[in-house]
Design goal:
Blueprint lengths: L11 H24 L14 E5 L13 H4 L13 E5 L4 H35 L4 H35 L11 H9 L4 H30 L1
Antiparallel strand pairs: 1-2
Helix pairs in contact: 1-3, 3-4, 4-5, 4-6
């Protein structure tokens, strides 16, 4: 097979198909395990644990005798700081389960939608070719989905994570977030990976737009 016979969408096309298939398999397996009582899916299931990560402003190995065992794992003179705490409630209530759903579902739905859109783009490019107005539209949809959807997903998840943390910590303590902190975590959120990927796709759409016009001009002059 010559170079001109190779699919220009490979290996990206095959990778996307494999990823989508694995995601579907993972979702079906998780739902099946949840139905039969041996798993948990998005906060649903008997084995669900409500866990939140807290970041204390100051906490060191010298503050608590409970860290004595950990102190023995480092040589004398070496400090040990606890940067985050994983706090879990092993018997979550309905409100905590709802918060768990919001800490997981938005990004899961976002990336599932992105992969499905990529799959549609690949199929459309396979039928019409990569240099068509339809492909440019698909890249625009993907880019804005990542930009807007990425922000909303992170806002919901960060806000839900702070809300969940409030349910597993004592009010008035350093670890307990107040309403202002919960709102702040939800509004002022940013995922650099989705931001840069979304901007990259929009830039690629502009490049393809120029390429399509150049191709049309070339065809018109031949």
């Amino acid at each position: 097979m010559g170079t001109t016979d190779r699919n220009p969408l490979e290996p990206f096309a095959t990778t996307i198909r494999v990823v989508v298939a694995l995601l579907v398999l993972l979702i079906v397996t998780s739902i099946g395990a949840t139905i039969f009582g041996s798993g948990s899916f998005l906060g649903i299931g008997d084995n669900t644990t409500a866990c939140a990560v807290a970041v204390p402003s100051s906490y060191s190995s010298e503050d608590d005798a409970g860290l004595a065992r950990l102190k023995k794992m480092v040589p004398p003179g070496v400090g040990m700081n606890v940067h985050s705490l994983n706090i879990c409630d092993y018997h979550p209530n309905a409100g905590q389960r709802a918060a768990i759903v919001l800490t997981q579902a938005p990004s899961a739905l976002l990336y599932l939608a992105v992969f499905v859109l990529f799959l549609r783009l690949i199929r459309k490019a396979g039928r019409e070719g990569p240099f068509t107005p339809g492909i440019i539209t698909q890249f625009h949809v993907l880019g804005w989905t990542l930009l807007a959807g990425g922000y909303l997903a992170n806002a919901l998840q960060d806000g839900a994570q702070s809300t969940l943390l409030a349910t597993v910590t004592t009010p008035g303590t350093e670890l307990h977030p107040n309403l202002t902190e919960i709102i702040f975590q939800g509004i002022f959120t940013l995922s650099w990976s989705t931001l840069l990927t979304g901007l990259g796709l929009l830039t690629l759409a502009r490049i393809l737009h120029i390429g399509v016009h150049m191709r049309e001009d070339l065809v018109g002059t031949v």
